[in-house]
Amino acid sequence: MTDREINAEVDIQDHEAGPEEMVSVDPLEEGLSDPVRDLEELVESGDFEALDRFISVLHPADLAVLFSLLSKGHWPQVVSRLSIARVSDLMAELPDHLRDDLAEHLKPDQLTEAIEEMASDDAADVLADLPEPLARDLIEALPEEDRLEVETLLKYPEDSAGGLMQVELVSVPETATVDQTIDAVRANAEEVSTFHFVYVIDDEQRLVGVLNLGALLLAPPDRPISELVKRNVHVVNPEVDQENVAQMFQRYDLVALPVVDDRGRLLGRILHDDAADVLEEEAEEDIMRMAGATTHEPELVYTDQVLKIAGVRLPWLLATLAGLTIPALLVWAFQISFPEMIALVPFIPVIGAMGGNVGSQSSTIVVRGFATGRVDFHNLGGFLFKELIISTLMGIACGVLSGVVAIVWHGDPMLSLTVAVSMVVAIIASALMGVLVPYFFRLVKIDPAIAAGPLVTTIDDIIAIGIYYVVALALIS
Amino acid sequence: MTDREINAEVDIQDHEAGPEEMVSVDPLEEGLSDPVRDLEELVESGDFEALDRFISVLHPADLAVLFSLLSKGHWPQVVSRLSIARVSDLMAELPDHLRDDLAEHLKPDQLTEAIEEMASDDAADVLADLPEPLARDLIEALPEEDRLEVETLLKYPEDSAGGLMQVELVSVPETATVDQTIDAVRANAEEVSTFHFVYVIDDEQRLVGVLNLGALLLAPPDRPISELVKRNVHVVNPEVDQENVAQMFQRYDLVALPVVDDRGRLLGRILHDDAADVLEEEAEEDIMRMAGATTHEPELVYTDQVLKIAGVRLPWLLATLAGLTIPALLVWAFQISFPEMIALVPFIPVIGAMGGNVGSQSSTIVVRGFATGRVDFHNLGGFLFKELIISTLMGIACGVLSGVVAIVWHGDPMLSLTVAVSMVVAIIASALMGVLVPYFFRLVKIDPAIAAGPLVTTIDDIIAIGIYYVVALALIS
């Protein structure tokens, strides 16, 4: 099993580009020609030589982008022009929901070969996404060693450190010398084509430390590596959540992170680009959840599966619709309680929306603070107090302004006072809710990102209108 | 100028930790003891030996987190215990708004030395953040070579490829052999302590390609590097926006990216961890903008500067408050136009909020699609059509439901029909607006993330209520 994906990191010669490609090709950049259309025209023209030339200069990641934009009808011709190595790269780069489609265009033995070519982590990811019976058959067809690797990796949850790691790495015993280590690197060069470190292990497979290639390059051949090894390195257990892994890469600027079991034995390594993907995926999930758009598959909303997309978005809408019966009832209560004060009613949506807006600001700040480690239970008290001051300042500004509008509009001081006081109280209450609700969700182990979504905005909306009703009852009736 | 920050990537021995630190210390992880309190107690106890021990095992990134949580009163004692190298690391890791505070605790020559220790990109970043006269003095005090480097880097906008790059790198002429290259690496080992590649240049300083260290390690000493060099590498111009740079790292799984001028001459290199920071920063900015919380300094909302924070959040609130006068007027219009149909009024906030919710879903999907390259002008038509189908499905579901509630509540078929039809039309209109507004903002070069914020939600709110009013006029009067 060669290591094509991480190969891409340092070696883009494997896509046979000419020197004219020294400047990055971005097929999606505006202003350039439209590469999707170009590709479609080439397929339709049947000029396979030109098609091959066009495909051969593309980085696998660019090829994957083109495939995701290419109409499905053109897929078979393009797929038929790809080498197994290119199919393997393409499959590793494609978004999850398109891997299935690509697999359908391949014969079983092509598919097996493509998976064999992948790094172990990509192979496991692809197999986890394919339909169960097909995946089973493919695993059975893999050579013994690859099969064991993939089966080991598939045991870990996809969103854990174990699910991110790959087993390909170079390790040497701590008793080795520099030239023995270089021999080990040479012996594994085919298998592990990119390595930032050589891992040093003791006689029980426990990680002792890492050797960086620069140190190896500069050291005399007979030097014992025990004098070069860096012993204090970050490690991670395979059970750790992928979000924590990504945060470690981010905080400590890591390139690669060894994965060890409870007894310190080296199991594999995680590479920086996979950690960066997690970071993006998690930010994406949070954002989508905040918009009430989806939960676990941010990719989905960019596909053509309209029914599935509606299925993911509609529950949020129905939930807020249900919640909105309360504001509707409150408006009705206003109309019944203050039949001669119809001027009170137009301010209801204003106060409700402002509560929602402030609550959404506060909860977003807290939710993102959790995600990036800047907010914690440690500083809840301080955070609440700060939010109290900020929301009081903002509440007074908005309250005074709406009070002025109310008195100019209707000339009724009592109405104006009701509106102003309600606005101030509603904004403060919504801001504090915006802090407390995500904390509460985190405490009970629900993803706090939900707290920045439309559900909580609706709650803030209701609270704000409720406050308005209570203030109106107190001041006017 | 040594290269401490990127050093952290492979070498955490420079913070003198003992082997007990093999497992990552996360000072903010719940369940562990409270390291901020521990540090404060150590400072108050005056036990400097224990304080030194405590500090010495921390990674610079962890030390920076502790500093950002530590009360300012305790800073001087802790700063006084740090070596210049540690101060340098800490300053590079601290969030922008705290660098100033740290600088105040240092003597000018300490500050100069700390900046000298930094990688050129960090030095330029720190100097750009310090007050102008202080920064000028510090630059003047730097050794000639460092001064020129920093001045060169400061010419590039902070958010460009030039602003991200560092000038430290190892380059060799294309005529060199492997052992000459290793000598060049050795000569630069102090200056450039981490390198993933050696850059190969021609006699006019133009980049020819890269050598990876693994290839150097395995090749015989007398081999010409022209046989090993990888000639097709991604490069970037210094003027390119940092967001595009980060997307290149993400798409092509890069570790380092050479920066070249228009004539292909090598200027510097960008490292993956700085690109990852950009990715996080940009996602953060988008999220905050979507919540109407801030624009360019996502960090700010986590500081104690309540006045500044209120200043950043209030404009959004005031803008939506101004926008909300329109729904208020529309409610008033309902009350005037349909004096005997007060049952129409409670549905106003419901329809308005649903419009806002759907619009927020759509615009978030489009805005994030822009940011990650999955949506483009190329597929506007398809995207709009898809959104039309999805929103029609969701609109019918919500419309039928609210129509049923209306007829159960008031038994009036005309009211029920008005509510149902308005809901369907409002949801479709808001969804399409949610797609078109970000496209429009992008077309006129305004950050489309604003389109997913409260301003556009308010517009959707208004449109939805307007539709309700028009439908009511058509069906009822």
Automatic annotation (TrEMBL), chains A, B:
Coiled coil: none annotated. The lineage of its organism: Bacteria, Pseudomonadati, Acidobacteriota, Thermoanaerobaculia, Thermoanaerobaculales. This is Magnesium transporter MgtE. It comes from the Bacteria. Homodimer. It is found in: Cell membrane; Membrane. Pfam families: CBS, MgtE, MgtE_N. The gene is mgtE. InterPro entries: CBS_dom, CBS_dom_sf, Mg_transptr_MgtE_intracell_dom, MgtE_N_sf, MgtE_transporter, SLC41_membr_dom, SLC41_membr_dom_sf. Residues 165-227, 229-285 form the CBS domain. It is a multi-pass membrane protein. The chain crosses the membrane at residues 314-335, 341-367, 388-409, 415-441, 453-476. Its main location: membrane. One of its GO terms (molecular function) is magnesium ion transmembrane transporter activity. Gene3D superfamilies: CBS-domain, MgtE N-terminal domain-like, SLC41 divalent cation transporters, integral membrane domain. Acts as a magnesium transporter. Keywords: CBS domain, Cell membrane, Magnesium, Membrane, Metal-binding, Transmembrane, Transmembrane helix, Transport.
